[in-house]
Each structure stands twice: as structure tokens, then as C-alpha cells.
Write a structure and sequence with these properties.
The structure is a single chain. The chain is of the alpha/beta class. A four-stranded parallel β-sheet has the order 1-2-5-6, with helices on both faces. A two-stranded antiparallel ribbon has the order 3-4. It has a single domain, classed as Response regulator (Rossmann fold, 3-Layer(aba) Sandwich).
């Protein structure tokens, strides 16, 4: 079961992502609303994949993206506020999905990254354990809010 790091500061979107991913058999540690908290978690863990909102309450997610890139972790930017071209040049070629997006589109992009990552992903940094536990939660359907799609 692949583990997905979610860094998103909008609670409803974060919960929707966690629900969609766990229902699709991905393992999701508690989502992070702040880049600093995600960086702290990454000191001891390396996920298989990541979904990052570019702009968070405590600033951008650029350092998180760069750390994941150095470890060979495939990542997807999922953002509605910042244009892709406003990213630093070294991050502009990374996959991008604009908010709002349907659940199926998110899963399709993630599966695509997972498949590509198997052949091109560098091994995790030595001494960085993969997250082994998985929390699964069922949440109310957020489709009425326009946050989850078919």
C-alpha cells in the first residue's frame, strides 16, 4: 500500500483528499496544514507519493517540494491560487492539477505518478523509514460542497 503525504491548509479539501485516498487503498498519515510541520515529519519519514498545495497559511510549500524531489518522491501540486509559471524554474515541470478537481482526476494523476515513480524513483534516503501505519477514516460526502467529484 503506497503512502501519500498530503500538505493542504484548507480543512475541507484536506479531509476530502484523505478520504478519497484511503478509500482508494492509499495510506495517508494525518494531513499537514503547514509546511513547517510537513518538513518536521519528513525528518523521520519518506512517503511514496505526495500531494502539495503551493500556498499554505505559513508560506509556500517550495521547501517541502524540494526535499521530496531530492529523495525521489513523485509529487503533485494541487493548487487553485498560484499559477504554475510562478513556481521556481526547478519545480515548473512537476505535475500540476488545478483546484477544484474531481476525485477521479486526482486519483488518475496519482496513479500515473506512482507507475512512473516505480521506474524512475530514487531509493529513499538512507535511515529515513517509510511510514508503516495507516489511518483510515470515513468522512461525510463533500460532493455537495463541490470538493469531491465522481
Amino acid at each position: 500500500m503506497a503512502q501519500v503525504l498530503v500538505v493542504e491548509d484548507e480543512p475541507a479539501i484536506s479531509l476530502m483528499l484523505e478520504d478519497v485516498l484511503t478509500e482508494a487503498s492509499y495510506c495517508v498519515p494525518d494531513p499537514f496544514a503547514r509546511g513547517a510541520a510537513a518538513l518536521e515529519w519528513l525528518r523521520d519519514h519518506t512517503p511514496d507519493l505526495a500531494i502539495l498545495d503551493v500556498q499554505l497559511a505559513d508560506g509556500s510549500c517550495i521547501e517541502v517540494a524540494r526535499m521530496l524531489q531530492r529523495r525521489g518522491v513523485p509529487l503533485l501540486f494541487f493548487s487553485g491560487q498560484i499559477m504554475r509559471m510562478s513556481l521556481p524554474a526547478d519545480l515548473q515541470d512537476l505535475p500540476w492539477l488545478a483546484k477544484p478537481a474531481r476525485s477521479g482526476d486526482i486519483l488518475e494523476m496519482l496513479r500515473s505518478l506512482e507507475t512512473a515513480g516505480r521506474s524512475t524513483q530514487a531509493p529513499p534516503a538512507y535511515g529515513i523509514p517509510r511510514f508503516e501505519r495507516c489511518q483510515s477514516r470515513s468522512l461525510t460526502d463533500l460532493a455537495a460542497c463541490g470538493l469531491a467529484g465522481a
